[in-house]
Amino acid sequence: MRLRVVVVGIPGVGKTTVVQASAARMRGGRLVTFGSVMLEEALKLKWIKHRDELRKMRVEKQKRLQKIAAERISKMKDAALFVDTHLFIRTHEGFWPGLPFEVVRALKPSHLVLIEAGSDEIVARRSRDKTRYRDTMTKHELESELSLARSFLTVASSLTGAPILILRNDEGKVDKTVNKLIAVLKEARA
Ligand code: ATP
Ligand code: AMP
Ligand code: MG
Predict the structure, then answer these.
(1) 71 falls within a domain
(2) Distance 16 CA to ligand 1 centre (A)
(3) pLDDT digits (tens, 9 = 90+) for 145-178
(4) What's the gap in Å between 171 CA and the centre of ligand 1?
(5) What confidence category does residue 135 fall into, taking pLDDT thresholds of 50, 70 and 90?
(6) Half-sphere exposure (CA, 13 Å, Cβ side) for 160?
(7) Is residue 65 part of a domain?
(8) Which residues surround ligand 3, an ion (CB under 5 A)?
(9) 3-class DSSP state for residue 96?
(10) Is the residue at 165 inside a domain?
(11) How confident is the model at residue 190 (pLDDT cuts 50, 70, 90)?
(12) Ligand 1: residue whose CA is nearest its atom 2
C-alpha cells in the first residue's frame, strides 16, 4: 500500500520535527513541507522573502500558492509520502482552511495525523525556536486553536475517508511520538 500521511497541528507543536524523523524511518519515505513548496513559488514571484510572511499576505494570493503547492505534491509518487502542513492558517482575514476540499482531494491522504501538545509546552517551544517568527498568543487563544484543529480535522477525515490519528508529542519525547506513528504505518503497510 502506498502511504500518503498528512501531518497537521498548530504552529510550534512539533510537526516538522516528528515528520523528519518518521520519514527517515520508513522504506521509501519522503518528507514534503507544504509551506516550503508555497514559499518556493512565492520567492519565484518575488512576493515575500520568509515563510512566516506567507500567512500575512492577502488570502487571495495565499490561495494561488496553495493551489500550486497541492498540484505539485499530488504528482509525488513516493512509497511513503509525509506531507507536513496545517489544518488552518491564522490570517488577517480570519482562520482560513489549509485543507479545503480541492486541496485535500489532490493530496489523497491515506492517513491524517494530528500532533498535539500541552499549551504551556507549545508556548515554550515557540519562544525557544529562533528560526521562526511565530505569533505571540495567550494560553487561552492557544487552547482555542487546539480545539479548532480537532474540528477542522474531522471535516478533512469525512471528506477523504482517511482515518484520524491523534498523537501527543510530549516534552522531550519526540522518539516516543515517532515510534507510535511508525508502528501504525508499518501495520497499515504489512
Ligand atoms: P510550524 O507549524 O510553525 O512549522 P512545527 O509544528 O513544525 O511548527 P517544529 O518546528 O517541529 O514545530 O518544532 C517547534 C520547536 O519545538 C522546535 O524548536 C523543536 O525542536 C521543538 N520540539 C519539537 N518537538 C519537541 C518535543 N517533543 N519536546 C521538546 N521540544 C520539541
Ligand atoms: P510551516 O513551515 O509548516 O509553518 O509552513 C509555512 C507556512 O506555509 C505556514 O505558516 C502557512 O502560512 C503556509 N502553509 C502551510 N501549509 C499550508 C496549507 N495547507 N494551506 C495554506 N497555507 C499553508
Ligand atoms: Mg514546521
Answers:
(1) no
(2) 7
(3) 999 999 999 999 999 999 999 999 999 999 999 9
(4) 10
(5) confident
(6) 26
(7) no
(8) 15-16
(9) strand
(10) yes
(11) confident
(12) 11
Question: How confident is the model over 74-113, as pLDDT tens digits?
Answer: 999 999 999 999 999 999 999 999 999 999 999 999 999 9
Q: How far is the CA of 182 from the centre of ligand 1 (A)?
A: 18
3-state secondary structure of 50: coil
Question: Atom 14 in ligand 1: which residue has the minimum CA distance?
Answer: 12
Q: Is 85 exposed, middle or buried (0-12, 13-18, 19+ CB in 10 A)?
A: buried
Contact assessment for residue 94 and residue 60, using Cβ atoms and an 8 Å cutoff:
no
**Cell, residue 68:** 500550486
Question: Residue 119 and residue 3: Cα distance in Å, rounded?
Answer: 30
| 6 bridge partner residues | 83, 112
% of residues, the chain, pLDDT over 70? 100
Task: With respect to residue 142, please indicate whether it lies within any of the assigned structural domains.
Answer: yes
- What span, in angstroms and rounded, lies between the C-alpha atoms of 34 and 15? 12
The total of other beta-carbon atoms located within 10 Å of residue 49's CB is: 10
User: Which structural domain range is residue 149 located in?
Assistant: 3-32+78-189
Nearest ligand (C-alpha, residue 12): 1
What CATH number is attached to the domain comprising 23? Answer: 3.40.50.300
Residue 130 has phi, psi (to 5 degrees) of: -85, 0
Angle between helices 59-74 and 34-44 (to 10 degrees): 120
Number of domains in the chain: 1
Q: Between these two residues, 170 and 139, which has the higher pLDDT value?
A: 170
